[in-house]
Amino acid sequence: MLSISSSRSSRFCDGHSRRGFLRLGALGLGGLALPGLLRAQSRQGTPGKKAIIMVFLPGGPPHQDMWDLKMDAPSEIRGEFRPIRTKVPGIEVCELFPKMAAMMDKFSIIRSVVGSTGEHAAQQCLTGRPPQNAPAGGWPSIGAIMSRMQGAGAPGVPAFVGLSPKMGHGPWANPGLPGFLGPAHAPFQPNGGGSADLVLNNITLDRLQDRGALLHSFDSLRRDVDASGMMGAMDTFQQQAMGVLTSSRLSEALNLDKEDPKVRARYGGGTMKCRDDGGPECPEQFLMARRLVEAGVSCVTLGFNRWDWHSRNFPQAREVFPQLDNGLTALVQDLHDSGLDQDVSVVVWGEFGRTPQLNKEGGRDHWPRVSCAALACGGMTHGQVIGATDRLGGEAVDRPVDFQEVFATLYHAAGIDTQTATINDLNGRPRFLVDEQFKPLPELIG
Fold first, then answer.
1. φ, ψ dihedrals at 359, nearest 5°
2. Residue 245 pLDDT exceeds 80
């Protein structure tokens, strides 16, 4: 662990002495400090410009109320919402997604995601694989693989950033574990994940709304290091570690105050306070993700809101659907406007779908047999629906799509050939990034 003592003895407004320490905390498994992580990443992976933003919807979103409405089903199945036409003829979505409807040519909807294990966890959305029969160390997440295969796209930024904060239900807060790739490819978590990844002069980054204290600490730290002349005594990787904390790239990416207020308003406000035991109600996470990939991060994961609606399905949807509509469409439009739509892929999904039948509490229960996903950008062919469910929305009847097929597609968009690329597990055995029978979706990459 790298510690740098301040040479001053003045105090912050919080009462902490200026003789505090900068601590670059352990990231992920094994307690590898940030300089060691950067050193390991330099030996593995080649910097690339492609990136992935993975949006996890904790709890399992109700597919038949969002992007696969069943108007011919009985009332206890079809629910309260009406479909609206989209920019693409023949495609309809829920009336609470008007912005998405207006730019459907920039999205692809998969209505037939299958293969869920039914576990209330982010793991399958982050790895594509069930946890059963995993190799020693576990399967690496998509962010860890992007870190291993590509590294960061620019100096002074980590390759993989996980924005999910600590949640009441821990398995939902998983930002993407490195698995058998080890702590060198663990996510950098600027807003904490159960334990703080970095502490600046005793200021812990538990929440993104603490960015004021973060920026103050960045500025104070930079002055201290410059004044002490210590930078020249550090080795290259310690300097890189300092760069992650003090470079303008990362600090400015984390500073949403740099954005035009009108841009921030398009994403929507919200709070990083988690909704019950789930994720935060903060569409600005989408803006943060966009700023991070612009800065050179290769993969950003985030958890948005809480979707485990066993009761009051429709009142909760009326609140949450518009938040997702705002944040997601603002992100995708900004990627197009900045020219990053060819290089950055976006995927939005949850761990499973919901029951066709409404329960007596007006909610939908867990339904692993089929779910949905939305994809955007990545240089893929959009403006389409892939797959279909039956009249009740309970079974995939056309073009079932496995989680790993989506992963193969995302890797392909990032320039990684899943038919040839392998990574060695802890026993030195080469492992394909997805099981060999799964290939990128031809509808999206053809």
1. -85, 180
2. no
Q: How many residues in total does the chain contain?
A: 446
Tell me, yes or no, whether 208 lies in a domain: no
Instruction: Please state, in angstroms and rounded to a whole number, the distance separating the CA atoms of residues 329 and 69.
Output: 20
Closest CA to 419 of 440, 399, 401, 402: 440
Overall number of domains in the chain: 1
Coarse DSSP helix, strand, coil percentages of the chain, rounded to the nearest 5 percent: 35, 20, 45
Query: CB-based contacts of 232: which residues, under 8 Å, 6+ apart?
Result: none
Classify residue 245: in a domain, yes or no. Answer: no
**How confident is the model over 121-157, as pLDDT tens digits?**
999 999 999 988 899 999 999 999 999 999 988 888 8
Q: Which two tokens stand for residue 40?
A: 């390991």
Please give the Cα distance from 300 to 306 (Å, whole number).
19
Query: Domain containing 160: what range?
Result: 47-195+260-445
Structure tokens that stand for 115 in this block: 């293969």
Q: Which of 147, 169, 155 is nearest to 43 (CA)?
A: 147
Q: Is residue 271 domain-resident?
A: yes
In a domain, 230, yes or no: no
How remote is the C-alpha of 101 from its chain's centroid? 23
- Give the residue among 50, 25, 44, 22 at the shortest CA–CA distance from 35: 25
Handedness of CA 233, 237, 238, 240 (dihedral sign): positive
Give the CATH number of the domain where residue 79 resides.
3.40.720
326/266 Cα distance (integer angstroms): 6
